[in-house]
# Entry
Amino acid sequence: SPLTTTSPASEFFGINQSIRYGTSTSILSSTAGIVDTGTTLTLISTDALTRYTRATGAVQDNATGLLRLTTAQFANLQSLFFTINGVNFELTPNAQIWPRALNTAIGGNANSVYLIVNSIGTPTGEGLDFINGMTFLERFYSVFDTANKRVGFATTPFTTSTAN
# Structure
């Protein structure tokens, strides 16, 4: 994907993408954001997070600051599709949850299901409407091609892994 020209995302490894939940629920229209290995979560604009929360039925967990699902809601969780340069990259339901073995390390309940999607803190249209952090990048092979001003992604055996 070519780097975006939209500021401030253009100051980093910024790209344009849209996000869809399941087959038809738009979470984020095509907009600029960044790919960042230094950010743990996948962050989206506040209005996009509202749409994601509504679609998943998640609730805010005060202890962790993350969204939380019941096990029944997790069983019905649909994939998130990130459309980057015309290609869909799927975050499966399992890829959208915090590693359960680490729940207590973040102050959570060992038996809860926490989501790795959270708010960037500003509404869509600020020029930095998402951050695809490590929770996104650990599911795809990624290449930061500075010389050619682009970022590349490819699937790996971990893209659809159910290990969590």
